[in-house]
Design goal:
By secondary structure, the protein is an alpha+beta fold. 18% of the residues lie in helices and 30% in strands. It is built from 2 helices and 4 strands. A 4-stranded antiparallel sheet has the order 1-2-3-4, covered by helices on one side. The two termini are 20 Å apart. This is N-acetyltransferase domain-containing protein.
Length: 114
């Protein structure tokens, strides 16, 4: 398994070439400390999961996360939340824009810290 990571600092120029693939203007959670994109690649170059997080004022929130059905319930989402927490040195808290899967994931949790 490999994890590809792209960090986008807050205030990146709108003309920067990284905006083509990693445009933090699409991050729908506060991201004053920047944003981070993860892609998890498995055997035979299969994309297992991807996620986007924003960090702001001592907290991190998930904008999007998708774990492919064949790889769910194996700890990938938890790993990505822990990596985001570690990257920003802040706890991840639930965002307001949660899917049914995210609501189930956050059931009984209030934050995730590395």
């Amino acid at each position: 398994m490999e994890i590809l990571v792209a960090e986008v600092p807050d205030g990146l120029s709108t003309t920067h070439e990284a905006r083509h693939q990693y445009d933090d203007r699409s991050v729908a959670v506060p991201h004053g400390m920047g944003s981070i994109w993860f892609t998890v690649i498995g055997p035979r170059q299969v994309v297992m999961a991807h996620a986007t997080f924003g960090g702001d004022q001592g907290k991190v929130q998930c904008c999007t996360i998708e774990v492919e059905p064949a790889f769910r319930k194996q700890g990938l989402a938890t790993l990505l939340y822990l990596l985001a927490s570690d990257t920003f040195a802040a706890p991840v808290i639930p965002s307001d824009n949660r899917t049914a899967h995210a609501i189930a994931f956050w059931n009984g949790r209030t934050e995730i810290s590395a």
